[in-house]
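Consortium newsletter contribution from the modelling node. Members have asked for a concrete example of what our holo predictions look like. Here is one, prepared for the S-adenosylmethionine complex that several groups have been discussing at recent meetings.
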Amino acid sequence: MCWLYPILHRNPASNLLVVEVAALTSADRVLDIGCGPGAAVRAAAPLVEEAVGADPSGRMLHLARRRSRGLPNVRYVQTPAHHLPFEDDLFTAVWTIHSMHHWGDEEGGISEARRVLASGGRFLVVEQIDPGKSWGVDEAGIHRITSMMRTAGFADVEWTKHRVGRADEAVIVGRG
Ligand SMILES: C[S@@+](CC[C@H](N)C(=O)[O-])C[C@H]1O[C@@H](n2cnc3c(N)ncnc32)[C@H](O)[C@@H]1O
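And here is the predicted structure:
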């Protein structure tokens, strides 16, 4: 599915949803883990100090960089979620959209998100609610993610359901 993703989802509403829920300000430094072609990074860029996309796929990052030309506060780094090459507490908002269900090491990725998130910052996980689990998570999957986030040290972990087009999206939020 993933090679078609950048063609079919050039500006997916779920990417705009996370930017809205994160309530960004000009002081924010944002990290998008599993950024794919970078739609959420570009949506955040005009609102924040810096927007960084991380993804292990060179092909996705090639598209992301091409589509982000001319945005001075955007950069991309090729890396998986469980190994984020950033210093502790660097970001004030970290998110991941439709990506966590691809991670081989979810606990490692969540722990890295916690490490690079500054105290008081927010971590948002967006996954499509799919009882068949081929594209996202079912309710048990949501509870598994909230539980891993609490174990990793996130506070005030809660999730909300959002109708986006014809899909239901789960947005799970925790505080650093
Ligand atoms: C369905 S795409 C979503 C892309 C983007 N977040 C969006 O919403 O447009 C899933 C992305 O997760 C990335 N991915 C796969 N394994 C990953 C991992 N271990 N860590 C971080 N990202 C990963 C893929 O390369 C791909 O870009």
